[in-house]
Design goal:
With 324 residues, the chain is an alpha+beta fold. The protein has helices spanning 17-36, 44-47, 62-71, 101-115, 132-160, 166-187, 193-223, 229-261, 263-308, and strands at residues 41-42, 49-55, 78-82, 89-95, 123-130, 190-191.
């Protein structure tokens, strides 16, 4: 049977993990700082604004729609083409204060009436309004959904395997999501509901390969009780390396295809996924798995402390000499 990576490979992943652990931790801390300042570039889903679904003349493209709206006095419209090109339908997103929300539709209609020669060639098909208060509540719910997803995944790992395995998954998940969010801040791309769905997908995908490796670690620990835990972890990672590479390649084929040919809407979904998937591979191997060894050492140390009361080896005192 064809094997992409021979099963005889025996690379010491745990021995090389320290630089990756430190680098990922520094990047995660840096991402947290970026999330505070300058922060994510929130879309109108989280800040409040209006979405207007337009049908325009068939010879108009995204740049033309944006130019006509801007020239008509609409500030910084976000224009996305939806559907097929022959439909010539666009989604216009405009940030506005609560008092101006109800005026956006009328303003867009007024601009289009002046800019389009034939009134029948355009149509305002739908208007959605999000108030600032609703946007703020939605923003809180967005972060809570990511947090709850990470916690529930860790709880599943704890019951599915062992308490020692959960911290590694939680740390790897946090690093994947934080680094992806930090890169998103640097790019200053809009953070909207589509991007949020992508972040939740990253959290789910991140633990996929980790669970398979954890299952091998548990099996080797049972089949070879004479092996130390470090050897079992390294052997499990090496045996799973081919599957890891194939899974990543197959996933990247789909995500890259969505990014290149999926249009603006799918691009917002696929770009953070592409970043998160590339980050999750080293974090799974070099962050999640070493945490098992760290937790096992803590368990042994705690057990030794409980047995002798101080954690130090007791020295037997000599018997007192009997007096004549």
């Amino acid at each position: 049977m064809f094997q992409l990576i021979p099963t005889t490979i025996n690379f010491d992943f745990l021995g090389k993990s320290k630089p990756f652990v430190w680098l990922s931790t520094v990047l995660a801390v840096g991402s947290m700082i970026l999330l505070v300042k300058p922060g994510l570039n929130y879309g109108i889903d989280f800040t409040g604004g209006a979405e207007v679904h337009l049908r325009v003349p068939t010879d108009w493209d995204t740049a033309r729609v944006r130019k006509e709206l801007t020239d008509g006095g609409i500030k910084d419209p976000d224009v996305v083409q939806i559907g097929e090109a022959k439909d010539s339908e666009f989604l216009i997103k405009v940030q506005a204060s609560e008092k101006e929300l109800n005026q956006v539709s009328a303003q867009v209609s007024e601009v289009m009436a002046k800019r389009v020669a034939d009134p029948k060639s355009y149509e305002v098909m739908r208007v959605d309004v999000v108030g600032p208060e609703a946007g703020a509540n939605l923003r809180t719910s967005a972060f809570l959904s990511i947090f709850y997803a990470m916690i529930l995944i860790s709880v599943y790992i704890m019951f599915r395997f062992d308490v020692r395995y959960a911290p590694g998954v939680l740390r790897a998940l946090a690093i994947d999501v934080l680094i992806t969010a930090g890169i998103w801040v640097v790019l200053q791309r809009e953070f909207n509901l589509t991007v949020l769905a992508s972040f939740l997908t990253i959290a789910g995908y991140s633990c996929n390969d980790t669970i398979v490796i954890y299952d091998r670690i548990r099996d080797y620990s049972r089949l070879h009780p004479d092996w130390d835990l470090e050897k079992a972890i390294n052997r499990s990672i090496n045996l799973n390396l081919g599957r890891t590479v194939l899974t990543v390649l197959c996933t990247l084929f789909v995500v890259v295809s969505m990014y290149l040919w999926g249009g603006p809407v799918l691009r917002d979904f696929s770009q953070p996924m592409l970043i998160g998937f590339l980050v999750s591979v080293p974090s799974t191997i070099f962050v999640a798995n070493p945490m098992i060894l760290y937790m096992e050492k803590r368990r042994i140390k705690a057990k030794a402390y409980a047995n002798n009361g101080s954690g130090k080896k007791r020295v037997a005192r000599p018997e007192p000499k009997a007096h004549a």
